[in-house]
Specification:
Elements lengths: L3 H8 L7 H28 L10 H13 L1
């Protein structure tokens, strides 16, 4: 019975992906990074300093959240 276990493990291995599939997955991940994290990082950079004319932290926070949700 112990001899069947290694054979079963070999048979249940996942097949290797084709190079083209890997390339597509990498590009999709990079496009996601560019589309999601690029604008979010820009937003964080704009609000890393207090807004000119903002009287309080609450005003700056409301502006940030408003921009984030729009």
């Amino acid at each position: 019975m112990n001899q069947a276990a290694p054979a079963l493990a070999r048979d249940t291995r996942r097949n290797r992906r084709e190079e083209e599939d890997i390339r597509v997955l990498i590009l999709e991940a990079a496009l996601f990074d560019l589309v999601v994290f690029g604008p979010f990082n820009d937003l964080l950079a704009r609000f890393s300093q207090p807004a000119p004319g903002a009287e309080t932290l609450a005003v700056s926070t409301r502006a940030f959240v408003s921009e984030l949700l729009s």
